[in-house]
Amino acid sequence: MNEPDACLAIVRTLTATRVGSGQAADIIDLPVYRDAATSWPVLPGSGMKGVLKDSPLRAAMEAHRGETDPETKAKYTEKALKSRAEQELKDVFGLAGDDGSGGIGSLVVADLWPVLFPIRSFCGVFAWVTCPLALAKLRLFARLAAPPVPPPDGASGSVEATTEAALDHPTEVGEEAGRKVAAEEAAPRPLAVPELALEAKEPPEVIVGTKSVLRCKNKVVLEEFDLVPQPAATANTDALATALAPVLGIGLSALKERLAVVDDDVFTFLTEVGTEKRTRTALEIGTKAVRAGSLRTEEYVPPETVFVGYAVIPDAYSLRTARFLQIGAEASLGAGMVEFRVGGGGRP
Question: Which domain holds residue 206?
Answer without folding.
Answer: 6-44+111-148+189-347
